[in-house]
Specification:
The chain is an alpha/beta fold. The protein is built from 24 helices and 18 strands.
């Protein structure tokens, strides 16, 4: 068998249905093998976008997404997606071509050390020097990408190796079962939580990865422990629940931090090292119970008292069984914090100002989408507003990046989300800066015939950094942007463009666009003048909270 044919069969054996990418001369044999097999190739307009799409595919399915690039500049364009997947714990396998390794024909033209470049950004990277290595190399790349903690892997396939003949056979995945926590640690966790006065559940990104939502909901409902989440843990438990305490969207000073301060035990479920814990462990005032697939990485702000390592869902279920119903807990400080949070979140949802008030933007998106609708955020000031104000009802329905926090991923992520969930409504929310970094993928979305709405939040600048600049008392410098006419820009790609002139018109436009089908771009100017007041808790509110 031709080696490139075997490579494609190995991909199919891993369950790969499509590959995102931009091919080049060095992977034409692999391309032809894909064509003959029927494996779908989604051609993008930039390799970076292909990587973001593959990573999002992995994030939503738990199975590694696959992206393809050629050597040299094609491979270097995958550096940011590699970091995006690696830091965000998204399973992804990158495939790149390379010049022949047995005989040079063009000197060092376009050759860079891609494996060396990818080494610090991946869980594994290697060059295939023999067709006989293909079955084991592909199997290992997918295994490493998908196992906890998920991330990026990379395989380089030189063109002469791809063209070789081989009699190697595919390797079947080994049977395995995720280990469960031992009885001793479960018993200790139950005792620690039961003896606390005000335990608080903190849900992190790891709980969102393996969809432990059902068991956590059982714990919250049956035992009655209030819960909050990190940004990447949003939606694991429905945030309309009366025991929801908010999202740790800010560094400090928010109502959720008041609840944390009042707690004497934090059950930290799925803590991911990439998201700093929303509390600083200065002393032993509160016990921290670490529930995760692996042990804690200890640092100056995170050193748990107890670690329960193993399958998270199983551990949560066993702890819920051990706790039963409790009567010794006093959540009065939590209830006051939640009341303050609810009052503040309600402000601005009906604000009619235009350019639109950020809380009104969040409210209109929430109103327009069903519970399983997916919002894909790019990176900018609006991300904090969505993280704090958006009530996420289901796991992985608010896709934000609180790991690498890169700009340019919003639109590609939304394309992949729509492909994974073709029956769900999908909205990309991008700042004008981030949107223009990969706006060419509008053509990809139109070509694929996707139903997709892209909201371009326009402040004609790099809004988050401009805000930080102002908070530091510095003059506005280097943050202004010039933008195209986004309506005509969308239409040039075959999409529909819209420019609402009021907050109510925006809501109506969004609803119509979601129902109409096709690709829609909404040019939406935004008013960020209230960032400082609204994205924190004012002194007067804190005085009332502490006095209560």
């Amino acid at each position: 068998m031709k080696a490139s044919d075997l490579f494609v069969k190995a991909l199919e054996a891993e369950g790969v249905r499509c590959v995102f990418g931009l091919p080049g001369e060095e992977n034409l044999d692999l391309l032809e093998s894909m064509h003959a097999s029927g494996l779908r190739l989604v051609v993008t307009r930039h390799e970076q976008a292909a990587g973001f799409m593959a990573a999002t595919w992995g994030r939503l399915t738990g199975r590694a997404g696959v992206c393809l690039a050629t050597l040299g500049p094609g491979a270097t364009n995958l550096v940011t997606p590699a970091a995006y997947a690696q830091l965000g714990a998204m399973p992804m396998v990158m495939l790149t071509g390379q010049k022949p390794i047995k005989a040079s024909k063009q000197g060092h033209f376009q050759i860079v050390d891609v494996v060396g470049m990818m080494r610090p950004l991946t869980k594994q990277t290697r060059t295939l020097v023999s067709a006989e290595h293909i079955p084991s190399a592909v199997r290992e790349a997918f295994r490493r990408a998908e196992e906890e903690r998920p991330g990026a892997t990379h395989l380089e396939l030189p063109e002469d190796v791809a063209r070789d003949s081989t009699e190697a056979a595919l390797l079947a995945p080994s049977a395995w079962k995720r280990p469960v926590a031992d009885e001793g640690s479960i018993a200790q966790a139950v005792e620690t939580i039961a003896s606390a006065k005000r335990p608080l559940l903190m849900i992190g990104a790891g709980a969102n990865r393996k969809l432990t939502s059902e068991m956590l909901r059982v714990l919250v409902d049956r035992v009655g422990i209030p819960f909050s989440s990190t940004q990447m843990g949003k939606g694991v438990v429905d945030e309309s629940h009366p025991l929801w305490m908010g999202t740790a969207a800010l560094s400090d000073g928010d109502f959720v931090h008041r609840a944390i301060e009042a707690s004497d035990c934090i059950i930290n479920v799925g803590h991911d090292v990439i998201e700093k814990p929303p509390f600083v462990m200065r002393d032993s005032r509160r016990a921290v119970v670490h529930l995760n697939f692996s042990s804690a990485e200890v640092d100056p702000v995170y050193f748990p008292k107890l670690e329960v390592t193993g399958d998270i869902a199983n551990a949560v279920w066993r702890i819920a069984e051990g706790l039963g119903s409790r009567t010794n807990w006093d959540f009065t400080p939590f209830e006051k914090a939640r009341a303050g949070l609810e009052a503040q979140l309600a402000k601005g949802f009906a604000d009619d100002r235009f350019p639109i008030y950020p809380a009104r933007l969040v409210a209109e998106v929430r109103r327009a989408l069903p519970d399983d609708g997916i919002v894909c955020l790019d990176n900018g000031m609006y991300k904090l507003w969505f993280a704090r104000y958006y009530r996420t009802r289901r796991p992985n329905t608010l896709l934000l990046d609180n790991a690498l926090a890169t700009m340019g991923a919003g639109l590609p992520s939304a394309i992949a989300a729509r492909m994974v969930h073709p029956r769900r409504k999908v909205v990309a929310v991008c700042g004008d800066g981030g949107f223009m970094m990969n706006s060419q993928e509008l053509e990809t979305a139109v070509r694929l015939g996707l139903d997709l709405v892209v909201i371009v939040v326009r402040d004609d600048g790099y809004g988050m950094i401009r805000w930080k600049q102002g908070e530091m008392g510095l003059p506005d410098f280097g943050m202004a942007l010039g933008n195209p006419d986004f309506v005509r820009y969308a239409e040039a790609y075959g999409a529909r463009g819209h420019r609402p002139t009021s907050a109510s018109e925006f809501g109506a436009t969004l609803a119509r666009s979601l129902d109409a089908g096709g690709v829609h771009v909404i040019d939406l100017p935004i008013d960020y003048s209230d960032n400082t007041r609204a994205l924190g808790v004012g002194d007067k509110e804190l005085e009332v909270l502490h006095a209560g």
